[in-house]
């Protein structure tokens, strides 16, 4: 190769080469600062509000769940209505309450569980057992399916509560029993045997029958406010 050829090759090799495209950086799993956070859900707001409301009380708690229009002083009164002054904690009781295990002394609900499906009622009872401390008591008051059937069988269905709640229009015992099952968003009625069975399924081992407004525990006396509460039990953790 001549000297001239060598110089031409040298100049060609020295020419600037185009830059290669840089390797793209690995994706970073961080939300950009200018991207808004995920919107707060109703559950998030309820959870935050419930935790804040519970700060007014000290464990061990006494829970009155499904309180409706009845307020027990010294108890945590829980219901879904966030606007009611009676309610201390607004909460959908189909969800687990933001309360630690074993921090509740007593739980009471009246004419509430029959408004849940049997699965929801079982889940609620399990949730109550979770929250109760050892030796804690769940007291339940509700209408008695056995009495509803008795009213039909004995044709003894004209009762004082009908006038009280505006049900004087009921004409027959068949209408009465259908109202008992279908009105007021009732979803599952219990007799004593059925309620005991479901509480056992929820994990309670000690279940005792009680009488309306009576209890061996002073704090659980006189709680029932409904005359038609005929089925009362206490389940002990």
From TrEMBL:
<dbReference type="InterPro" id="IPR013216">
    <property type="entry name" value="Methyltransf_11"/>
</dbReference>
<protein>
    <recommendedName>
        <fullName>Methyltransferase type 11 domain-containing protein</fullName>
    </recommendedName>
</protein>
<feature type="domain" description="Methyltransferase type 11">
    <location>
        <begin position="95"/>
        <end position="139"/>
    </location>
</feature>
<dbReference type="Pfam" id="PF08241">
    <property type="entry name" value="Methyltransf_11"/>
</dbReference>
<dbReference type="InterPro" id="IPR029063">
    <property type="entry name" value="SAM-dependent_MTases_sf"/>
</dbReference>
<dbReference type="GO" id="GO:0008757">
    <property type="term" value="F:S-adenosylmethionine-dependent methyltransferase activity"/>
</dbReference>
């Amino acid at each position: 190769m001549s000297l001239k050829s060598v110089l031409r090759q040298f100049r060609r090799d020295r020419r600037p080469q185009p830059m290669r495209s840089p390797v793209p950086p690995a994706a970073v799993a961080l939300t950009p600062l200018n991207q808004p956070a995920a919107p707060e859900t109703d559950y998030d707001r309820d959870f935050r509000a419930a935790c804040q409301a519970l700060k007014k009380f000290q464990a061990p708690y006494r829970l009155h769940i499904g309180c409706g229009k009845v307020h027990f002083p010294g108890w945590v009164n829980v219901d879904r209505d966030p606007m009611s002054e009676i309610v201390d904690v607004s909460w959908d009781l189909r969800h687990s309450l933001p309360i630690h295990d074993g921090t509740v002394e007593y739980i009471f609900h009246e004419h509430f569980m029959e408004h849940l499906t049997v699965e929801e009622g079982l889940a609620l009872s399990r949730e109550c057992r979770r929250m109760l401390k050892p030796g804690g008591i769940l007291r339940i008051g509700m209408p008695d399916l056995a009495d509803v059937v008795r009213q039909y069988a004995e044709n003894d269905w004209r009762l004082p509560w009908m006038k009280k709640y505006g049900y004087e229009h009921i004409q027959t015992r068949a209408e009465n029993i259908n109202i008992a099952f279908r009105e007021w968003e009732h979803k599952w009625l219990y007799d004593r045997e059925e309620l005991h069975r479901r509480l056992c399924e929820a994990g309670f081992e000690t279940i005792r029958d009680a009488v309306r407004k009576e209890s061996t525990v002073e704090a659980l006396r006189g709680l029932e406010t409904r005359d038609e509460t005929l089925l009362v039990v206490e389940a002990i953790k």
